[in-house]
Structures are given as structure tokens and as C-alpha cells.
Amino acid sequence: MKVTDSMEGLKPIGYALSGCTHEILSFVVMEDAQVKVNYFYFINHPLKHGTPVLTRTFRVQPYNPEMIAGRIGPLAGKKGRRADYGKRLEYTIAFAEILGYYDEKGKWRMMEVAPSPWDCVYEPSEEALQRFLAYRGEAGGSVMLEIGKIRGTNIPAYIDLNAIARGHMFVAGMTRSGKSSFVINMVAKASNLKPKPHFVIFDRRGEYSGLVKYGAKIIPYTRFTPIITDPKTIAEKLGLKSKEREAVLEAARAILDGGGRLTAKNLISKVREVLERGILFKTDEAKNRCIRNVEWAVESKGGFLDQQSEPLDIVEEVNGSFALIVDFSVDTDIEAQHRTASHILNQIRNHAIKRKDHGDFACIIVVEEAQYFSPEKGAEIKESNAQSEAKASMIEAISQAGGYNVGLIVVTQRPAYVLKSCISQCNSVACFRLRSGNDQDAILEYTEYGSERLRDYLPGLADHEAMLWGLAVPTPFPIIIEVDVEEYPRKAAAFAKSAWEKMETKDKKSDLPIYLQDS
């Protein structure tokens, strides 16, 4: 292919400047051309004539030598005038990362040499971009799902659900940037695949209920909460300390070791027995005070003891549902939520390992607001045994389960608060708008892309735009996509405006005579 053929019909938009490297292209933009950040452009390979090399701009800035301090421009500006001739000296410089090219055998290669000064930069047509961006179709176990368009084009963007099931995905972005919409629409679109993938979704805010019309099933997390058999957890949930805690621990162990079931009534009864025959207290007054404290704790906080029942079998539910939404928005019992999350993760992981030789089980677990289930050290909400167990289960699942076709989609608005050992295990990433330096650092340091240029891309992403990279993405370089959004997250609670309207109505009624307030 000749050089003239490879760029035939493409519009020249600039020329390479001196100082380019094999990774970074800087070029001056022609006067009649427009160059945009996050868009693709071509250059010719300096050594392989006729081979187009793909680049993507990450910064565009104007430059005017007459507006440098000490030149005539600032002096004119001081007097409220403009040096009109100086405008003619202004030009625009663009900076692009050099992504790579396909060689004569169709293999993706990184650029080996730097572009030369005066090498021409071209604006590619969509047809020319097809070679680099279009999904070519792959043999094997790929399960490709169209999720949107590559930014600035009509070229479909795909992700491979099989790669997620075997290697996990990290989804990050500021609040309202579109990360939950991305997952919701991915699951909705997956409902049309043959065979259908299976999903488990940890829904902390009641956002995923819209998936019911695609075949999803919603079950409160409490139906999966395991019966507490750890005396320490019982004492912790009752908020007991010191001697009261010791009495409850001994009583609970005695009941459980005897094969009995813990209830509020038999726990209090057993505590009395322990105190009557024990040596925890030297006086009757101290013993009676302990009993009163335990009774108060059980009556006020021990309702869970009588409400416990055998949990549903999570594996049966996964097998019977295309998408199982585990609703964590039904209450605010953080300890029970952590314990349930740990139980679900462990049960699914263990089942997948047992069925590894049969090849008849696979699922993707979506963990929304992952910072609650696997917080980075120092970012914990509440220290508890259950939280430690949930964190350990997340680490074990993300470290082991991918090899058994159980993948995690770890979703968060604050990457800096998520356990870094979880982020680093995700070999695919979908990153929406991020402006916090700490959150950008977490992406830079613990994912495979790790380019400083992410700081230029991520803050400028629009709503429902994401940068994707990793094994689940068909291209060998990161792409920016515009997500197809048909379903939006649903909130479990009403908007504040609606609540205030109802409060206002109540206030107006309270001003009426009593006999009119109910009318």
C-alpha cells in the first residue's frame, strides 16, 4: 500500500512538531481545522510507509508568542488595547498519545520510533477508523454485548461478558456520571442474548428494580441472612461489654453446644443460670444489675434472635433467575448486610469450585457501592467481625472465583475508598467522569492502563460517557464510549421535594380544627 493510498481522501489537519516521542505526538493545527480532545487522528508510520498509526488527543491549547510577558501584547492589554497583528501569529498545538498500528500480518504493534517534524496528521473518516475500532468477531468463548457507540462515531462498542466472568470488571465514576445506568443497561441488553448470562446484583439503594421487566427477580437480602451461630457476633449486636458480655458469651455457647436454638427468651434464662452458678460477680447487687442490663439489651436490640430463619439457597436462586437482585435497601442493619454479603459470596464461590469439572455454573456478581463491602484500610464505616468477614470474602472471591467462571463487577463512586487488592484484580475497567485527585490516583496506580494521561481524559467525560480498557474490550487500547441508555436507576426513597410537599400538606391540616383534619 502506498502512502498516498493509505491516507487517500483523508483531510490533513496539522503537522508534527519537533520533540515528539514514540508515545507522544505534538502537532500544530492548521488554521481551517478543528481538533478535539479525546478524538482519534492518523499519522503515517515513519519507517513503514503506507501504514496508518492511530493517535488520540488528550490536550489542545492555543499559543500566541505576542502574549508572553515582556512582549507587546501584554503592554497593549495594559492600556486596554489589542495588538491586532498579534492575533495573526496565534496558533493551536495539540498533544496526542500514539496508540499503535496493525502490521502487515494484522498484529497490533506499539510505535517503535518517534514521528518526524513536518509529518502530516490526518483526520480519519469513519470508514478508515473501522479497521481499528470495529469488532471483528472472535472464535472461542467470547460473549460480546453491544453497549453503545465509540465516542464521535457510529461504530458500535462491545464488551465481552465471558472476559468479565473470568476476570472481573471495575466500574468507577462520580455520582450521576452514569455508572449504575451502564450496569443496568448492560444487564437489560444481556437479557436478549442466547444463552442468557446469569447475574447477581447487590443493590444498596433500590436502583435496579427497573430490570424486573427484563426477567430479573428481587429478593430482600434478609431472606439470605444466615442464622448467627457465633456468640461473639451476638454479643456485638447486643452492644454488650465487660461482665455482661462474658455472661452472654458463656450462655450462648452453652445453648449452641447443647444443640439448642438461640431465642431472646432462652438466652436471658441461660444468662440467669450462668450467673447463679458462676463467679463473675461477688455480690447479689452486681449480679442483678448485670441481669437487668442483659434483659434491657435483649429486649431493645435482640429482636433478630427470634426473627432468624433458615436462609434461601442462593445457588438455587441464581440457577433459576436470569438476574437476581439482592435488595439491601430494605433496612440499615450494616452488620447483617455485611454478614449476608459474605455468606452469598462464599456460597457462590464454593459451589463454582465444586462444579468446575462439570462446567455447568457461571455468573457475574455486581457489587454496587463496593466501598461498603470492601473498604480500604482506614475507610471502614464500622469496625465489626461481620465487616472483616465481608472484606475477606470479597478478596477471596475476586482472587479465586474468576478461574471458575464467577466474575465480579465492582462498582463505586470513590475508588480511593475501595480495597486496592480488589481493584488490582480487575482486568477490565469502565471509568466514568472522575475529578478527585485521590480517586484518579487509585485508577492510575492499580489498573493496567496506568497512564498519566487519564488525568486529562476523565474530568471532561460527559454523563454516560466512559473510558473502557482491558480484556473485556475488543480493542487493544482504551476507548471512550457513549453508553446506550434506555433504563435509568430507580431510587428506593422519594425525592426530597415530594417529601416536603407531603410535610407541607400535614402542616396545613394541623392548622385546621380537629374534626376537619381527617377529611
The figure for the number of domains is 3
Give me the CATH fold name of the largest domain. Rossmann fold
- Residue windows where pLDDT falls under 50 for at least 5 positions: 1-5
Strand content: 15-25%
| Total beta strands | 18
Report on the structure:
This protein has 519 residues and is an alpha/beta fold. The chain has three domains: 3-133, no CATH class; 144-154 and 162-225 and 313-483, P-loop containing nucleotide triphosphate hydrolases (Rossmann fold, 3-Layer(aba) Sandwich); 231-307, no CATH class. The chain has helices spanning 3-6, 72-78, 84-87, 126-133, 161-167, 179-190, 231-238, 242-257, 264-277, 284-301, 303-307, 314-320, 334-354, 385-400, 420-423, 437-446, 454-457, 496-510; strands at residues 11-16, 24-29, 40-44, 52-63, 91-102, 108-109, 120-123, 144-150, 156-160, 169-172, 199-203, 216-220, 323-327, 363-367, 406-412, 428-431, 465-470, 479-483. The strands form two sheets. Strands 9-8-18-17-16-10-15-14-11-13-12 form an eleven-stranded mixed β-sheet. Strands 1-2-5-4-3-7 form a six-stranded antiparallel β-barrel. β1 and β2 form a beta hairpin. α7 (231-238) packs across α8 (242-257). The longest helix has 21 residues, at 334-354. The protein is elongated and about 95 Å long. Residues 1-5 have low confidence and may be disordered.
